[in-house]
Design goal:
4 helices; 4 strands; rod-shaped; alpha+beta
Length: 190
């Protein structure tokens, strides 16, 4: 952009120099200061040459002005787009902050629920759960639904399901495939 501005100033300066010189020569011609016919002819030729040069320089100046105008318009469009994207980024940052706050609140709620639930569980069972959780990527227990362990997604064989059905409701069960603690549900299928 600054290159085009410099180019425009130079073009304007060049045009002005030629105009000034042409005006001076035309004034000399009209004032009758030229004595000989040969000097008169030379001066007329120079004025014509300056007129062509001025026309060429004005075309260059016009071209530079048009390019500068287009560059300015493009810069304004980019600036408007930057402002628009900045506003969008601010909205996204705010949404991310709200999501983090929501996640943090949910994590805190789950921690409280876990603490409340763990208070009613024996230390032996909690230790077993923590051990299985460490072995299985943070999931130490899984629901038994429709004869399938929700942890490993494997269907348990009928013999093992029969053994599970025969155990008391408070018995600690493990999946024979993945080893996670099994939690019986109304949909267990046993």
């Amino acid at each position: 952009m600054s290159d085009l501005t410099r180019e425009q100033r130079k073009a304007e300066s060049d045009v002005e120099q030629v105009r000034t010189r042409r005006a001076r020569d035309e004034q000399r011609l009209q004032s009758g200061q030229v004595g000989s016919a040969r000097d008169l002819e030379s001066l007329q030729h120079e004025i014509e040459s300056l007129q062509r040069r001025q026309s060429d320089l004005e075309d260059v100046e016009l071209d530079v002005m048009e390019r500068l105008e287009a560059a300015t318009a493009h810069e304004e469009q980019l600036s408007a787009r930057e402002t628009e994207l900045g506003a969008l980024l601010t909205e996204i940052d705010q949404a991310v902050e709200r999501a983090y706050a929501s996640i943090d609140a949910e994590v805190e709620q789950v921690r409280r629920e876990r603490t409340d639930t763990a208070a009613g569980v024996s230390d032996d069972l909690l230790n077993l759960y923590e051990k299985r959780r460490a072995q299985h990527g943070g999931v130490g227990a899984a629901a038994l639904r429709q004869r399938r362990c929700e942890g490993c997604r494997m269907e348990l064989d009928a013999r093992y399901l029969g053994q599970i059905a025969a155990k008391p409701d408070d018995a600690v069960l493990s999946c024979e495939e993945c080893g996670r603690i099994l939690i019986r549900t109304l949909e267990s299928g046993v």
